[in-house]
Amino acid sequence: MNGKAREEGEKMELSKEYILSQYQELGLLNENENVRIVRNSINGRIAVKKYMNIEQTAIYAFLKSHRSDFIPQIYEYIEDGRQLIVIEEYIEGRNLEDILREQKLTIEESVCIVKRICRALYPLHMARPSIVCRDLKPENIMITLQNHVKIIDFDIARIVSPGKNRDTVVMGTEGFAAPEQFGRRQTDCRSDIYALGTILNYMILRKFPVEEIAGGQVGAVIHRCVFVNPDERFQNVEELERALETLYPSVVRKETDKPAGDKQPKWRRILPPGFRSGTPWKMLVAVIGYLLMFNLFLSMEIREEDVLLTGWRAWFQKILFLLSQLAEIGFLFNYMGCRDRVSLLNSKNLLLRVAGYVVLDFAFITIAALLWMFLEILI
């Protein structure tokens, strides 16, 4: 019997090694040592590989077996000694915090996002026992390139334990976490409702409820979400969603609309930076900037060993220069989400971001030089 158990164990270890060997590591995601970008060598799919506490195994087992449009797909979860390795879907897009830095959402758009999060939480809260996210905040809410809403972080989620008075470990992000997450009592689904109220208020005012609560009827909904006593809050996400639908029935009719404040037609996405938003002053600044760039393009002199180049050779170098500058602008303003794909350009460290753009500029210049050398060899 022991020999059979040993054989089964060895098979399982080989299976784990085989699964992990399929994923080639490409680098850190947001400079987090525990989160890597990987590529599946079999199907070429880009994914995220995370190392976390093995206590989260049951959470990720649930997420894998209960797929949701609002949560990244879990491809694999593997227990490796005292840690858990999770391979999950890579979400292309921007987190809500970054979006809020650049644009103000309307109340209706904010409500629409919170309703989507309610839909994401419903199966978790309805599980038996319930699963609580505990770390809902704008940085953990992604708006994809297709304008879908996804919750991306369940690293401190927990399963509610009936009969416990309080959580064993204090966890959560100050400002968004409910008071009970800091040792007052056990967290449950109403803790996530507190976070939803805080997020809604934050989207509307860019302030926490303790600083100022939004006015009007939406403010009343937020106020009920953030009571210190969980018994006074909405008791489940269905109640919260119904309250929001009552206040904003138009949001119900627009369930398939874009939730992140982008009401523009899809063709606008391919417009150059400065024109995608349709904002007059931004377009004016963009026109001036592009005119200056093209004026420089037309008037610049290209010299090689102090000899002024003319004809097609000069035009080719000018075009290479123009393309490199347009590419730089594209990354700077995240054209078609290109900046989101380069982790160094999204670093929270300003010096690293600047270094990233310097490296990028050097790369464009190098590519232009190589193209010129290649053309010289051909001719």
Briefly, what is this?
By secondary structure, the chain is an alpha+beta fold. The chain has 11 helices and 12 strands.
Properties at a glance:
single chain, 379 residues, alpha+beta, 5-stranded antiparallel sheet, 3-stranded antiparallel sheet, 11 helices, 12 strands, flat
Q: Counting H and I runs of at least 4 residues, what is the number of helices?
A: 11
Q: How are helices and strands ordered from N to C?
A: HEEEHEEEHHEEEEHHHHHEEHH
Low-confidence stretches: 253-264
Q: What is the multimeric organization of the chains shown?
A: single chain
Mean pLDDT: 82
Overall geometry: flat
Strand content: 5-15%
How many angstroms separate the termini?
75 Å
Radius of gyration computed on alpha carbons: 25 Å
> Can you list the strand order of the major beta sheet?
1-2-3-5-4
Describe the biggest sheet?
Answer: 5 strands, antiparallel
The number of distinct β-strands equals 12
Structural class: alpha+beta
Helix content: 40-55%
What does this structure look like?
With about 375 residues, the protein is of the alpha+beta class. The protein is about 45% helix and about 15% strand. A hairpin with a 4-residue loop joins strand 8 and strand 9. Helix 4 packs antiparallel against helix 7, helix 5 runs antiparallel to helix 6 and helix 6 (about 215-225) packs antiparallel against helix 7 (about 235-245). The chain is flat, with a radius of gyration of 25 Å. The chain starts with a helix and ends with a helix.
